[in-house]
Amino acid sequence: MGLPLGAALAACGTSGPAPSGGAASGAAAGGNGGGAKASYWFLSGPPGEAPRTAAVKRFNQANPNGQIDFNVIQNDAYKTKIKTAIGAGQAPTIIWGWGGGGLRSYVQAGQVEDLTSWFGENAAVKDRLFPGAFGAATIDGKIYAMPCETVQPIVLFYNKKVFEKVGVQPPQSYGDILDLVKKFNAQGIAPFSLGGQSRWTNMMWLEFLFDRTGGSEVFQAVFDGEKDAWNNPASIEALTKMQELIKANGFIKGFSSITADSNADQALLYTGKAAMMLHGSWSYGIQQAQGGDFVSSGGLGFMNFPPIDGGKGDPSDTVGNPGQYLSISSKATPEQKEIAKKFFASGVLDEAEQKEWVGTGGVPIVNGSDKLFTGSKDAEFLNFVYGVASKAKVFAQSWDQALSPTAAEVLLDNIAKLFQLSISPQQFATNMNAVIGK
Amino acid sequence: MSATATGRTSSAAAPKARGGGVLPWLALPALLAFVAFAVIPLIGVLLLSFTSWDTLGTIQLTGLESWQSVLSDPGLPHALWVTFLITALSWAVQTPASILIGVFLAGHQRYRELLAVLYFIPLLLSSAAIAITYKALLDPNFGLGAGLHIDLLTQDWLGEPGLALGVVIFVVSWQFIPFHSLLYQGGVRQIPRSLYEAAELDGAGRVRMFFNITLPQLKYTIITSSTLMIVGSLTFFDLIFVLTEGGPSDATRALALDMYKRGFQANLMGAACVIGVILVLVGLALALLLRRLGGRDPNASQLEGA
C-alpha cells in the first residue's frame, strides 16, 4: 500500500487500441506457425487456474504467429521457483506476481521492464482498470506491472444463523465487537475463527486495527521507511488492542494450531463453532464449495470492518489484494516482449475472462465489471465487493506483500509472537523498527 | 592402531587386488560424485557466506557482515538449542524402541515377519504426507480428539511450545523407528547362535542374555544407527516445515528451518549460508565424536571366544 492509490496517473485520454475481446475470433487452426514464443508461469488450483488457462488458449488461437507457452505451478512452490528462475536469468517472459515489495526487489535487480511509457501510449488499456490496482504495480513513480485478475479485499464474515440463535446484531463498531465477544463466549461459541498458524491470517487483524485506530498513514510511514515508525502512539495502541482481544478470548481456543491452507478456519465459521471471521474475499468461494448449503441458504453474512470509537481511520478504507500482477522479464527477446504486450492489450481480462472470474465468485478489476453480475447467484456478494473496492478511500495492499521479502518475514515472525503473547506491543515495535527500510 | 588396521584390510583385500592398482580406481566414481555434489557446493556456500545476496541482484562481497549479523542474533542460540533438543530427545526415544523392536523382529516366526512388513510402512511414506496427516489428526476442532470426543487428545497440540516440540519428536520417531529397527534386526541376526547356546547351558535367562550378549554385540549397530539419527536430525527439515513451520512463534525453529527461512523467505542468502556452514561444522564434529566412541579399533572383533 503506501503507494498513493491514486498514483495511477490520471488518464491521458487518447484512444488507444480498444482491448475488446480478441478472443472468439477465428484462427481455429491455430497452427503453431513459426515465430517467437513467449512463456508464462502462473498458479495452479481453483479458482484461478481455469480462467488463466482459458485466457492464454484464446490468445494463442487468435495469434498463431505469436504464441504463449504456459506452465502451471502450485502456489507455495511458485514463490521459490520464480525467484530462483529470475535470479538465474531463466525467468519466463511474463512474470505473474502480487506486486508490492516482491515486485520492488525485481525492479531493483533490473529484472523487469518499465511499462510506464507503454501505458502512456496505450491509455485505454490502463483506463479500463480500477485505478487503485496500479498502486502495487508502481515503484518510485514508474509502472512495472500490468494489473490483472480480481480484487480481493479482506472482509468481516459472520454466521447469520449463529447471530440469530444468540439474538444479536452484526457489529457497528469495535465496541460492539468487544460486547459480542462476551456474549458469544457466554454461549460457548467462539467469537472469531482464526487460522493462526498461517501468520498472515493474524496480520489481517493488525491491518484493520492500525487503519481504524490511526488511519492509513500509520503503516504508510513504515512503508516509506520513516525511522521508528512503529513507535507511533496509534501503532502501540492498535497492538495493545490486539493483545486485549486475544486475552479476552476473542479467538477460538487453540487458534495457533489451525492453518488457513486446510481451510479449517473457514470450516469453523460455516459449522457454527465460531460466529465471525476476518478473511480474504476469496473465502466466499471456499465456503460455498465446502460449506454445504451454508452460503446458498443465506447463512453467510459479510461486511467491511467497523470503525473504532474515537479512531482516526476512514471506515471506507480496506486492505487486501488490489489485484494480481503481470510483469515482463527484461531478459526476454524483443519478439517475446511484443507478444507479452499484445497479450496485455488484447488478452488479459477480455470479456470472456471477466465472465469466468465472475463465475468463480471474483470481481475482475475492470471498471463496470459489475454489469456482469446480474443473474449471478452470487450477485449480492459480488456487488458488495465491487462496492468496497470502488468506494474505498484507501485500498491498502496486504503488509506482507507491500514490504520487502526480508522485512515481511520479520513481520510475520513477530506477529506470531505477538499473538502468542510472548512479546509486548513495545517489543514488537522495537523489533520491527530494526528492519524498516530493509 | 592404524598399522593393524591397514594390515588387516590389505591382507583381506590381497586376493582380489592381485591385478595391481585396480582398487584405487574403484573409488573414483564415488569420489567424483562426492566432489561434484558435496565439496564444490560446500565451497560455494562458504564463499557465499562472505557476501550479501538477495537471490535476484548481483552478489556483493561484504566480508564478515553476514557472520556478524547471524552470530549476534539471539535467534541463533535459540535455534541451536531447539536443534539440540530435537536431536537428543528423538535419539532417546528412537534408540531403545528400535532396539526392542529389532530384537523382536529378528525371530523367524511367521507372525513376526508379517509384523516386520507392517512396521516398515511409515518409512515408505513421504515426510510431507506424514506431516499433513498428523496435522489433520491433531486439529483441535476437527481432529481425532474432537471426532472421538476424547478430551485428552483435544489439546492445542501445535499451538503450545512444549506440546509442539513433543509432537515433532513423536512424529519423527514414528517415521524413523522402522528404519532403525531394520538395522537392529540385521544386527541381531548376525550374532552367532553359539553365544546364546553357551549362555543357556550356563543357565542364563532371557533378560540376562539380552543385556550380556545382544546389547554388547550390537555395539557397532548402535553407533551406526546413532550416527544416522543424530546427523539426520541436525538437518531435519521437511517434516517440521510442514507440521509447524517452526512455530508456535519459534518454538520448533531448528537450524535447518532457520536456514531455509532466512535464505528463501527473507531473501538473505549470505546469512543462510553462514548457518549452512555452522550446520556442516556441527555435523562433522558430531560424526567424528561418534566414531571416537566406537573405540580405538573399528575392526576389532566382537567374537573373541565365540
From TrEMBL, chain A:
Source species, domain of life: Bacteria
Regions crossing the membrane: none
Q: Which SUPFAM superfamilies match?
A: Periplasmic binding protein-like II
Q: What is this protein called?
A: Solute-binding protein
- Source species of the chain: Microbispora amethystogenes
The record's section on InterPro entries has: Bact_solute-bd_prot1, SBP
From TrEMBL, chain B:
Q: What is this protein called?
A: Sugar ABC transporter permease
A GO CC term attached to the entry: plasma membrane
Q: Where in the cell is it found?
A: Cell membrane
CDD domains to which the protein is assigned, alphabetical: TM_PBP2
Outline the extent of the ABC transmembrane type-1 domain. Answer: 80-290
User: According to the lineage, what is the superkingdom?
Assistant: Bacteria
Q: Locate the transmembrane regions by residue number.
A: 25-48, 79-107, 114-134, 163-184, 218-244, 264-290
Species name: Microbispora cellulosiformans
Q: What are the record keywords, sorted?
A: Cell membrane, Membrane, Transmembrane, Transmembrane helix, Transport
Membrane topology category: Multi-pass membrane protein
Family, per the entry?
Belongs to the binding-protein-dependent transport system permease family.
InterPro entries membership: ABC_transporter_permease, MetI-like, MetI-like_sf
Q: Name one Pfam family in it.
A: BPD_transp_1
Instruction: Choose any GO biological process term that the UniProt entry carries and state it.
Output: transmembrane transport
